[in-house]
C-alpha cells in the first residue's frame, strides 16, 4: 500500500501526463521552518526513483543540515552569477532551466525578489515562464507572502512583509499542499536550532514565533488550502455542467484615501478568491479630485491602488461624477 506522500507524488505525475503546459505544485506553510523545502527534496528523490527527469533549479537550505543532506544525489542546475553594487551574487538561472527542459524543476522561495538586472522582477514571474515553456514546477511559499493577506499578517505579527505574490499565482497551481505542524512542534524545532542559529532563537521566540502568532498563521494556512480545494472542485463541476451557475460578483469602492482603500481592495480580493468569483474596483472621481486639482501624493496612491487591484485580478472602473452614492448604485446595477 502506498503512503500518503507516495500518493501525493503519483497524483502530480498523473496531472503532468494530461497537459502540455507545465503543471504547478506549491507547498505552503504557516511560517519558516515547517519543512516545505525538506518535503520538496524528499519528493525530488521519489520522482528520480520513478525515472523522472527532475532537477533542482533553486533551493535555499538556510544552513539546515537535515535539508542540506537531502541535496545529495540530486542534479542541481548551477546558479547564475552576477555583480550588484560591487558584490558577486547568485541568482536562479531561468534560461538554463528552459534550455535544459527537465520534466520537473524544483524552485524554492517563490516570493523572492530577483536581483536588479534579472529578466523578471520576481521569482514567481520566472516560474510562470517555465510553466509556459511546458516544464513542470514544484515550489514553496509561506502564508504571509500572499498579497491579499498582507494587512491581516501585519495585524497578527506586527511585521509588514515586503516580498509578496499575487493571489492569482496560487490560484494557477494545480496542487496546493499544506505542510502543517502544531505550535508546540514548531517552537520545539526552533529551540533545537533547526530553523535559526542559536543567537537568533530568543528574539524569534519573543516576536514572530509566539504561540498566539503561530496559531493564527496556522489557521490562515489551513483556510487558504481549503479554499483552493473548494475552488478547484467548483471550477471542475461548473465546466462539466450543461448550465453553469451564475457566479457571485463583488465590487470594491474606493476613494483617494490610501490606507483605507488598500484594506478594501485586499478584503474584496479575498472574498472573490474564496467564492471563485470576478470582482471590480470602482473609483468615482469627484470634481474636487479631477486631474488638475488632486494632490500629487493622492494621485500616486490611486495609481498604486489600481495596480494592486489589477495584480489581484480586479477590473478597474473609473467614473467622473459629483454624485458618489448614486454612481455606485448605477454601476452596481449595470454590472449585475
Automatic annotation (TrEMBL):
One Gene Ontology cellular component annotation held by this UniProt entry: cytoplasm
Record has Transcription regulation as a keyword: no
Gene3D superfamilies: P-loop containing nucleotide triphosphate hydrolases
Pfam families attached to this UniProt entry: KdpD (PF02702)
Source organism superkingdom: Bacteria
InterPro entries cross-referenced by the UniProt entry: Histidine_kinase_KdpD (IPR052023), P-loop_NTPase (IPR027417), Sig_transdc_His_kinase_KdpD_N (IPR003852)
GO molecular function: phosphorelay sensor kinase activity
Keyword annotations: Kinase, Transferase, Two-component regulatory system
Location of the Signal transduction histidine kinase osmosensitive K+ channel sensor N-terminal domain: 21-229
PANTHER family in UniProt: SENSOR PROTEIN KDPD
Name assigned to this protein: Sensor protein KdpD
